[in-house]
Predict the 3D structure of the following.
Amino acid sequence: MSSINTPLPVRRVIPPVPVLSLAAFAGGRHAALPSLLDGADARLVTSGRIAIGLALRALGVGAGDVVLVPAYHSPSMIPPAHWCGAEVAFYRVRPDTAPDLADIETQLAKGSVKAILATHFFGIPHDLAPLRALCDRHGAGLVEDCAHAFFGARDGVPVGSVGDYAIGSTMKFFPIYEGGCLVSRRHRLDVTLRGAGAGFEMKAALNALEAAFAYGRLPVLRMLLALPLRLKSALWNARKARSDGGATTPALAPSSSDSSFEFDARWADKRSSWFSRAVLRCVSPARIVARRRRNYVELQRALDGAPGCRPLFPRLPDGACPWMFPLLVDRPQAVFETLQRAGVPMTRFGAALWPGVDASVCPNSADLGRHLIAFPCHQALDDAERAWLHAQVRQALETCAAVPA
């Protein structure tokens, strides 16, 4: 039965990413799925893209080399290769985002490919053993991109263990303002990091706390910090005014924390903040995995039978801890605009690809970029927020399907 005329819950403001709460620290340390950090040499850096650059550098990527990147990608994945002096070529992906091995083998045969970046999109692990064999046969390095898959395994093989190096984006899974990691289970990491200064440390902590306060978490702490936060805002505004007046002041935090696609080499030797590292040590991995899986399955059930859509993955594999819930939508622009007006957080991953990457390069990537909308399923969503999200998405799909194209 259609619910077009069913009143929706009142508009809510729900967190698009994990935010801190007291509940984040409950639930136990032992997760049902392995972590990217388990059994690996690791360096905690400020973003996943910095980790990509460091991984490529560790593989000896340099001028004249080619790095193969999936045609379905975030534009932030490309500048790290350019930082190393390499060129980037794109390989095709299959409709489920798995790498097209035949296309990769064709490009490897050209002989200039130094490294391949393979991504576990949306937290659903791929079987990378065949790609590993291809890399070994052609002498290419493999970087396992686990930015969407901090936890997980495929057929008992933990994410991050197949590549020469693996990278992660801790700020996608933990309630922190910045953070990424470079790891390897195959090599020792010859990477030395240093602190980024008091301003960065303060901003990383306060921004994470303010994100929690903005969504109604940690109310007692918010009251206690009200005066210091007002002082911080005044100092920040004064600093910005000096910068706008022509003074040059270095950024206190990497632009990656504010959703840019840039690669700032000044952060290549900086470690993640003390606050972010402390959160990683203290919050419950078991809760992250269990709640993300539950929230993903709940949203999939809520959308079962909704018109004009289908989940990218028919089922959530046992070994997956999802980053977001990816939905293929027949009328994506209409649905997106409807949900945007309602204030629903979402991501259109791959909608903007690197210049020159289009359907002629990879039809599947272009199709995914046009039709996919991803919705949050992170661990910080409470019962009311999830119910509101489910209702809004289903209502938007039904409303748009009822309007003639």
User: Anything to note?
Assistant: Residues 1-7 have pLDDT under 50 and may be disordered. The first helix runs from residue 48 to 58. The domain at 285-402 is CATH 3.90.1150.10 (Aspartate Aminotransferase, domain 1). The two ends are 21 Å apart (CA to CA).
